[in-house]
């Protein structure tokens, strides 16, 4: 990571994954072409879980053990650190180009990047567990109907896990005074 001052600890990276509505999975196809797709992903410890239709590009491009990377981004916003008057006055300051680039024409964000390997889950109990994790993240208020839906889904759904081999987290955020908060590198 180039910006070590923005690197965050592993707990932060896990929280970004847990808060993100989706992650983008990327791999290389058998033909050597890049392939990336957004997925609804749930985390269970050091593995990521997602599901798929029984056929399609994901199925073709994700044989067991395939190396993949994933990116998760949460809390994206343009910071509003200056009033209109302050922005107008800033144009006359010698450090204006630098301040404009780092504090005005920028975004705050939180991100996590994962490297790992993907494996299809084939045991019905493992698939049900993974589907439950996914549904608890995305449809927690409807879990009373989970069993009925899950038993039917087993016939038409593939379920995958990604074993996390590498995980990093990063953020850019400003405090109330407009100072950039620095990271929390480490465990």
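^ structure tokens above, recovered residues below v
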């Amino acid at each position: 990571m180039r910006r070590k001052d923005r690197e965050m600890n592993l707990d932060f990276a896990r929280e970004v994954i847990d808060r993100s509505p989706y992650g983008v999975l990327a791999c290389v196809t058998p033909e050597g072409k890049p392939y990336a797709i957004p997925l609804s992903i749930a985390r269970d410890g050091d593995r990521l879980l997602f599901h798929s239709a029984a056929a399609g590009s994901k199925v073709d491009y994700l044989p067991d053990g395939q190396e993949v990377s994933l990116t998760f981004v949460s809390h994206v916003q343009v910071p509003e650190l200056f009033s209109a008057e302050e922005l107008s006055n800033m144009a006359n300051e010698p450090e204006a180009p630098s301040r404009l680039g780092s504090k005005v024409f920028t975004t705050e964000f939180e991100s996590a990047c994962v490297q790992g390997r993907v494996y299809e889950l084939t045991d019905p109990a493992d698939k049900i567990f993974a589907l439950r994790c996914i549904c608890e993240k995305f449809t927690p208020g409807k879990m009373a109907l989970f069993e009925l839906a899950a038993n039917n889904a087993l016939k038409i759904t593939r379920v995958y896990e990604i074993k996390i081999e590498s995980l990093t987290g990063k953020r850019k955020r400003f405090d109330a005074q407009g100072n950039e908060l620095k990271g929390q590198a480490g465990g």
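The CA atoms of residues 21 and 138 lie 8 Å apart.
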